[in-house]
Amino acid sequence: MLIDTHAHLDDEAYEGNLNEVIENFKKEGGKLIINPSYDRTSAEKALMISREFEVVYAALGIHPHDAQMADEEFYDFIIQNSDYEKVVAVGEIGLDYYYDNSPRVIQREVFKRQMEIAVKKELPVIIHSRDAHLDTYNILESFKGKVRGVMHSYSGSWEMAKRYLDLGYYISLSGPLTFKNSRKLPEVAANTPLDRILVETDSPYLTPVPYRGRTNNPSYVRYVAEKIADIKEITFEKLMEHVEINTFEVFEKIKR
To answer: Annotated binding site for a divalent metal cation, which residues?
Structure first.
């Protein structure tokens, strides 16, 4: 049984073969995929794909890279479509100080605004944070008790992960955990409690070993899960039992 809590199925990498990608995922035991958006176009596509494929759910939000493109029309779009039964989160949202594709002050403003939407619509959030963990944490802390969600494709230290866990967030791990040069993530995988861990691919990016260098797809979430299970010295099946429970806990609109 496979669950991928973060895959960009609307990406152009899947044009012409999305049916095959999803069918292969299902044949591998795939149960559900969450498709977060990063701008208005991808949000519209995520909605369309969720309507077309039973196993796919959508999250609506604007990525920090595109934060300067956010406007009232887009916020209204999120609010208006968030009641759809297959929209399960606001995301992906957050901060990215590595690329700084949008000014940092705007990133923070847009992040907070989308957190407010999550509060209003009673939805969890999917958080992107790169080289911005302190500011990310401070914003999430300001919403403590009002919103919970997932630290997507977590890349920080175990010390920082503990602080996110204390806020009630889940830690989601992806392909980089399997890389030979991964230093911090094995410690995160080892120490994150089983009732707070999730797995994802971030497809079509961050392809895990043994397919690193190729286009990622949701079926490869198995390799991330197997790595976590190996680190924790439990079976793959035991890990996925917890991942399934955790997924339904945080994304409450997904039908069991």
So the answer is: 6, 8, 92, 128, 152, 202
